[in-house]
Amino acid sequence: MMPITGKETYEDGQIIFEEGSYGDWVYTVESGKVEISRKLEDEKIIISTLTEGDIFGEVAFLANVPRTATATAVGKTVIGIVDRAFLDNEYNKSSQYFRLIIKNLALRIQNMNNAFVESKKDQ
């Protein structure tokens, strides 16, 4: 179980974070659901719906990039904020080569999400 430093409660439709914003916190869904989406030419494309136990926000943390999607509460949702010191400590224990692999995986996820959203444009 991830060490949680705090919990936040969101109401249905409330935005947890927006695509393009900066932030490197990682979250876990404690209860409720979180919709991960992107905007494409004023159209909202849903990438995923997360449920209890799912982790999100990791791409921005691992790759040190802006948020790649918007996270929105679906119904009343409680999220846990993963302890930043714990994440930094665990990440920094890894060799520079392993951190490079992790960063590349996070960027690959970002690219796959971009490709998924682009594929929806043609439908």
What report would you give on this structure?
- The chain has 123 residues and is α+β, with helices and mostly antiparallel strands.
- The chain has one domain (4-121): Jelly Rolls, CATH 2.60.120.
- It has 3 helices and 6 strands; from the N terminus they run βββββαβαα.
- The protein has helices spanning 58-63, 84-93, 96-121, and strands at 4-10, 15-17, 27-40, 43-50, 55-56, 70-82.
- Strands 1, 2, 3, 4, 5 and 6 form a 6-stranded antiparallel β-sheet that branches.
- Strand 3 and strand 4 (43-50) form a beta hairpin.
- The longest helix is centred in the last third of the chain and has 26 residues, at 96-121.
- The protein is flat, with a radius of gyration of 15 Å.
- The relative contact order is 0.25.
Briefly, what is this?
This protein has 123 residues and is α+β, with helices and mostly antiparallel strands. The chain is 34% helix and 38% strand.
Average of per-residue pLDDT values: 90
What is the total number of structural domains? 1
Structural class: alpha+beta
Shape: flat
Terminal Cα span: 40 Å
**Highest CATH level, the class:** Mainly Beta
Q: So, CATH architecture?
A: Sandwich
**CATH topology group:** Jelly Rolls
Q: What about the largest sheet?
A: 6 strands, antiparallel
CATH superfamily: Jelly Rolls
Helix share, percent: 25-40%
Strand content: 35-45%
Give me the oligomer status. single chain
Can you count the beta strands? 6
Give the radius of gyration.
15 Å
Q: Would you list the SSEs in sequence order as H and E?
A: EEEEEHEHH
- Helix count equals 3
